[in-house]
Structures are given as structure tokens and as C-alpha cells.
Design brief:
Blueprint lengths: L4 H13 L2 E5 L6 H12 L3 E5 L3 H9 L17 E5 L7 H12 L4 E6 L1 H7 L10 E4 L5 H4 L6 H6 L10 H14 L3 H6 L2 H23 L5 H14 L6 H8 L3 H13 L3 E6 L13 E4 L8 H22 L5 E7 L5 E8 L2 E9 L7 H10 L3 E5 L5 E6 L2 E7 H5 L4
Parallel strand pairs: 1-4, 1-5, 2-3, 3-4, 6-8, 10-11, 11-13
Antiparallel strand pairs: 6-7, 8-9, 9-10, 12-13
């Protein structure tokens, strides 16, 4: 992809505020390509270093401020220094702290990284206050659509004003995402055989090459087995006790492995919303995959696709400093559940349920809507649906998913 305009807006804002910006996200989501496009379009002088290249690694070790020796097109130029995969350097945090403190007034720095960056940042952070961070995700319907709503228009009127004039275009994008994921390479190639080989290599590479370099994992085969179990658990509260029993390992072991999956962008998990929910479950999270076409169950895959759309939206809004947004699900001890709840701060503002083809609002969606008194949407995979139902004082929109998701800010 050569656009990623949605993320360009975030970059423009953050880079104007801080000379050091970190770009995080899953492997092969397009971070390096995005960084190169930023350099090509916005800077007259650019220095690029990729830690994975031996010559670049040697260059930095021999001269940590190598970029300051590069010629500039003018005296007033402020070059962009892109450090790709620099978090694989053992002392990367102290290195960035040093060059920031010395060169923040002369250079703009863009740091790209995936799971290792997220994982190592948690173990004490010498960069506090020196950087801003944003996330880039696999392609989503909203990113592929030019008809996104403004954020406040969306939060104030989530059931109104979305433009479905491009339904044919968004339907095509939905089908491609459904089959090939939003990772740019398989999405652009759009061939099932390529996605299959890419997908098999993708998970194996992260588990075998990335996870083992940051964690003391004695049995990688068991970690791969756990990851192979995830697709069958998508969309349901995950019982770590059950997984520990299946794998015959300790509860804490499963807990730590799942945290690694989250840190390395293999999975993401949603916490339950508990405020004002009688008999709400408190701890169990629902799990989802970034590479969701591996999910065989159609309903679970559909829910996962929607979950990733909402995660991208929430993270982008937070990265821009537009509020403190969060994504949750609802479930009580009577096993009544709604798939998603969007909140800003402590205020829920939208409920979302996913169904493959059911055009009647789900009973649980109606019940939780009456309790929380907020708008609700039921997204369905079936084509050509757009209906409004009354539920007491509130409305429920039942709509074909791609028509509505493509309008997410």
C-alpha cells in the first residue's frame, strides 16, 4: 500500500509535538513502507538504518551518531532519522535517550518496531517523557474507505450519517479482508494459496524467532500448541485454567504466554465492562487474532473482523489525544452477552452485536441497551440490510457490516 493516509494524519500531529516518535504494530503491517513514504514526501534529507542489516548494525556500533555526519541539502534542513528494528539492539533505550538529549533540536527521529519494542519497554523505561507513540494496524475497512465520519459526529450520532453510496466498493474490500486478512502483502496479492503459506510462516516466525529472544521459554512446541488453540477460543471469555489443563502446564505459564502473544501482536484481548452491570463477570477476557482468516468458524471470524476494526479506531483516537477511549464486551453470570461496548473515559456510548444474517435485534442487545440507555448497532454479514428498530426510548440499527464499519473515524 502506498497511502495509509489515516496514519499520516497521526504522524503529522505527533511529529509536530515531539522530535522522537515511535511507530509500533504487528510484524508486516506496513511500518517500514509507511516510514519510507513519510521520508519521501515530507523531508529533503533522510537517514535510514535497519538494525537487521549487518552493514547498518556495524555502522551504528562503530559510530553511534553516524547520522550527524551525513550531508544536508541546506544549513536549515532538519533531517529525518529512521531507525528500523532498533529495539533489537540490547541497549536501545539508553541509545535513544542519548541521541534525543543531544540532537532533539536538530533532527526528527522515527523509530519503528513490533513486539519486542512493546515487550522491552515494560521492563523500566528510560525514555519517559521523551517520545510519543502511535500504532499502525493491518488494513481495515475504515482505512480503505474515503468516507469516514468525523469522530464527534460518530460518538454523538453513531446510527446516522454514514455514506453507503460506495457499498459495492466496501463490499469488495470486505471480501478481500475476509479471505486474506488486512496484512498488506497477502491482501494485495489476493491469492488464497499465498495467504496460506504466508500465514503458516508468520505465526511460526514470531513464536520461534521473536518470543524466544525475550522470554525464557523451555518448550516452544507447547507455545505453538497454545497459539494453535486460540482460533477455536476467539470471541469467548478465555479460561486460563482450562488452557493450563489442556497443555498440562501451570496457570502462570499460560498467563505469561498469552501476555507474550498480546505484546507481539499475535492476539489482542478485551476486558469486560462492569459498571452498572449486575452480576457482571470481572476477570475473564475475550481473545482475538490479528490474522483472523485462520478462524474456521464463520461467526467467530466475523466477530474478530469487527473487533479489529474497533481496536484500530480506539487506538488511533487515543494516539491522537482525542480522548481516553476503550473497547470492551458485556457478559454477566447468567451468560447474557453483547459482543462490544465502546466507551470514552467512564462513559459507554455504543453497544455493538455481530450476527451473520439475523435481522432481528438480539434479545441480549436489547436488554443491555435498556440497562445502559445508549445507542446500539447490530452488524450482520448479510448484504443489503439497513433497518432501525425501536427499543423503548432508544434505537437499534441493524445494518450490513461493511456499510457501517467503513465510516469509522
Amino acid at each position: 500500500m502506498n497511502q495509509r493516509a489515516l496514519y499520516k494524519v497521526v504522524w503529522d500531529q505527533l511529529s509536530a509535538d515531539k522530535p522522537l516518535v515511535i511507530l509500533a504494530g504487528p510484524r508486516q503491517a506496513g511500518k517500514t513502507t509507511f516510514a519510507r513514504e513519510i521520508a519521501a514526501k515530507g523531508f529533503s534529507d533522510t537517514v535510514y538504518l535497519n538494525w537487521d542489516l549487518p552493514k547498518d548494525k556495524r555502522r551504528l556500533i562503530e559510530d553511534p551518531v553516524f547520522f550527524s555526519k551525513e550531508p544536508r541539502s541546506s544549513v536549515s534542513s532538519r533531517p529525518l532519522v529512521i531507525l528500523d528494528e532498533i529495539h533489537k539492539y540490547r541497549d536501545w533505550k539508553n541509545y535513544l535517550k542519548g541521541i534525543y538529549d543531544q540532537f532533539a533540536g536538530e533532527y526528527q527521529f522515527l523509530i519503528t518496531g513490533s513486539g519486542r519494542l512493546e515487550f522491552s519497554r515494560k521492563a523500566g523505561d528510560s525514555l519517559a517523557g521523551r517520545f510519543l507513540k502511535f500504532h499502525i494496524f493491518p488494513l481495515t475497512l475504515a482505512e480503505l474507505s474515503p468516507r469516514r465520519k468525523a469522530l464527534r459526529d460518530f460518538t454523538d450520532h453513531p446510527l446516522e450519517g454514514f455514506d453507503d453510496s460506495a457499498a459495492r466498493e466496501t463490499a469488495r474490500a470486505f471480501r478481500s479482508l475476509w479471505e486474506f486478512s488486512g496484512f498488506p502483502e497477502p491482501f494485495m496479492k489476493a491469492r488464497k494459496n499465498f495467504w496460506s503459506t504466508w500465514s503458516a510462516a508468520y505465526g511460526h516466525q514470531i513464536v520461534r524467532d521473536d518470543l524466544r529472544t525475550v522470554a525464557d521459554i523451555r518448550n516452544l512446541d507447547l507455545v505453538e500448541t497454545l497459539f494453535a488453540l486460540v482460533p477455536s477460543r476467539v470471541g469467548s471469555p478465555v479460561s486460563m485454567n482450562n488452557l493450563a489443563g489442556d497443555l498440562q502446564v501451570a496457570f502462570e505459564t499460560v498467563k505469561n504466554w498469552l501476555l507474550l502473544f498480546d505484546s507481539f501482536y499475535l492476539t489482542f484481548r478485551l476486558s469486560p465492562w462492569t459498571a452498572k452491570i449486575s452480576r457482571s463477570i470481572l476477570k475473564e477476557k475475550k481473545i482475538y487474532l490479528f490474522n483472523f482468516p485462520v478462524i474456521e468458524d464463520e461467526a467467530a471470524r466475523f466477530e474478530n473482523l469487527a473487533a479489529l476494526e474497533f481496536l484500530r479506531a480506539v487506538e488511533t483516537w487515543n494516539d491522537q489525544g482525542l480522548g481516553k477511549f476503550s473497547l470492551h464486551y458485556l457478559r454477566n453470570k447468567d451468560k447474557q452477552e453483547v459482543d462490544f461496548l465502546l466507551a470514552e473515559g467512564n462513559r459507554p456510548f455504543l453497544l455493538i452485536e455481530t450476527k451473520l444474517s439475523d435481522e432481528d435485534p438480539a434479545a441480549n442487545l436489547m436488554a443491555f441497551q435498556n440497562l445502559l440507555n445508549i445507542p446500539a448497532v447490530q452488524l450482520i454479514k448479510k448484504e443489503g440490510v439497513k433497518k432501525i428498530y425501536k427499543n423503548g426510548k432508544n434505537n437499534i440499527l441493524v445494518v450490513t457490516a461493511h456499510r457501517w464499519l467503513s465510516s469509522l473515524p
